[in-house]
Amino acid sequence: MQRMLASVLWPAITMVVLAVCAAGAGAANLPVPGADREIVVGGDRDYPPYEFIDQNGQPTGFNVELTRAIAEVMGMKVEFRLSGWSEMRSALQSGRVDVLEGMSFSEERAREVDFSLPHAMVNHAVFARRDSPPINSFAELAGKSVAVHRAGIMHDLLVREGFKGRLELTPTPADALRLLAAGRTDYAIVAIVPGMYIIRELKLTNLFPAVRNVATHRYGYAVKKGNAELLSRFNEGLAILRKTGQYDLIYNKWLGVLEPEHVDWRSIAKYGAVVVVPLVLLLGGFALWSRTLHRQVALRTADLTREVSERKHAEEELRRNQQQLVQADKLAALGVLVSGVAHEINNPTGLILLDVPILKRAHNDTERILEEHYAGHGDFTLGGLPYSEMREEIPRILDEMQDGAKRIKRIVNDLKDFARRDDLGDKETIDLNTVVRTALRLVEPTVRKATNRLQVDYAEDIPPVRGNNQRIEQVVINLVLNACQALPDSERGIFIATSCNRATTSAILTVRDEGVGITAENLSRLTDPFFTTKRESGGTGLGLSVSDGIIKEHGGRLFFDSTPGSGTTVTLALPVITEEET
Predict the structure, then answer these.
(1) What is the pLDDT of residue 2?
(2) What is the pLDDT of residue 17?
(3) 182, 184, 197, 126: which is closest to 158 by C-alpha?
(4) Taken in order 22, 28, 33, 39, is the CA torsion positive or negative?
């Protein structure tokens, strides 16, 4: 939820200071539509998956669903009008729409409209044909013909920087990619997520992103200059959705990790032939051999017994080979996923880790100005909240953002470790009770929303275990989140307990929920990579698989016991440090 705040906190502080000065000079806010009429929300009709018109002629996409959720929590009525982007920008200035639900931020645009806190980050890429000359940087586009979305943020940027080439302006990003696919331009610059979405939907198979992340922009709501009241209502609604977790559900639905590509029928037939044809020939040979043996059963009974034994051994060896082939295929798919996740996540994470210290210094420099204004003029709004609250919250938020970014980096490294089965990270002496307490603090909002009955019992005098504190904490978080997702309503409970098994010298953690339970056929597959019963709600099937790998590398075990309709109990056992090891 806080990944966008790092890039906007300083601009938000600056905007508040300017807004306070403007208010002192007598600036007036624009009127805001009240409950007696609908708020007209404008957007681009062809900018998937953010906002677009679907096959039924209805507005849909990430921006549309997010706006509907904000309207619901804020008690607002909204009417959507999606059309050409340049037309929508004009409609905002003329008052025909009250707010644009998705607009990239720039300093030039900020002089024309007021922006909300961002609800997404938009990365742009240079797309090329697969037969185009390779390029490695934005500067290599000089002298080339480039297709861009008319009145879009990249159009503004290229004009501002005096692009030395020929611009082909198109009504929509899809038109820009069509021109490129048809060979009418050398390259196209389109936002990476809409670009990949359009390539997939239009089957433009000769296009690919040649240079990723040539520009990154904050993306949020925009209102006519001075309409601070309407802007604050959208900021407040967005903050509520982030706190309740509803924003994350909408974000993952439209902009989350894509499902792995399915194997086509040609590949299935190819690999099927490799396995089935030799198997059929082998079985045919055995059948012929068996018929011959039947004719000579009286003379060769002993030989027949030996051949049957060898046949069973060969079939068992074949089954083992097939299982190894399936496992190798899973590991190959996991390797592709890990490389993609690491590449896409490490860049923005590094940006956050680089920017947060700058934001901290910026806050220290502006704190005196804000405090003086607060002392002289009383309380005022900062980021949609009273400054009297934000003055204490901002340093905490900055620290949490930095810790969160470091955690993301560690999680990416965990995925890499799982894929290549590397050794554990630094081991240390850890206390299981402390790990559980820390994990519960991190997932407290989710637990509080999922159940009204959480019971935690910590046993005393549990011997310490040796391992990686963050990885064990990650496993506990996965187990608790799975328990929350299994509950059909908040009246069902979650029960967590720690203990020590002196007989097996193990530290024990049990997580029991009163959820829907797991069927017997699925219980044995819970730790398989990519197996999940929650695919429709965004599950990837990696949580328990990664957790099981972490616990095994620590010398421990995970046990599952479940009855459909009555809940599930997960037991985690880790070896404790014995007196001989101390």
Answers:
(1) 38
(2) 33
(3) 126
(4) negative
The alpha helices in 530-581, defined as continuous H runs, are 543-553
Distance CA 410, CA 464 (A): 23
State pLDDT tens for residues 358-411.
888 888 888 888 888 888 888 888 888 888 888 888 888 888 888 888 878 766
Which one-letter DSSP state was computed for residue 241?
H
Burial of 521 (0-12, 13-18, 19+ CB in 10 A): exposed
Asked if 210 and 132 count as a contact pair (C-beta separation under 8 A), the reply is yes
Q: Note the pLDDT tens digit of each residue in 30-69.
A: 445 544 579 999 999 999 999 999 999 999 999 999 999 9
Question: Taking the CA of residue 226 as centre, how many other CA atoms within 13 Å lie in the half-sphere pointing to its CB?
Answer: 10
Report whether 504 contacts 483 (CB < 8 A). no
Q: Which amino acid is at 461?
A: D
Contact 547, 559 (CB under 8 A): no
Distance of CA 21 to the CA centre of its chain: 39
pLDDT of residue 186: 95
Point out which residues pair with 508 in neighbouring strands.
499, 573
For the entire predicted model, the pTM comes to: 0.43
Does the pLDDT at position 14 exceed 70? no
> Angle at CA 338, nearest 5°, toward 337 and 344?
90
Is the CB of residue 550 less than 8 Å from the CB of residue 470?
no
C-alpha pair distances (Å), 223 with each of 75, 122, 206, 456, 580:
19, 19, 39, 48, 69
Strands ordered across the beta sheet of 453-457: 453-457, 493-501, 506-513, 567-575, 557-563
Q: Residue 117 has which token pair?
A: 């806190």
DSSP secondary structure string, 445-508? HHHHHH-SEEEEE--SSPPPEEE-HHHHHHHHHHHHHHHHHH-SSTTSEEEEEEEEETTTTEEE
Arithmetic mean of pLDDT, 133-138: 87
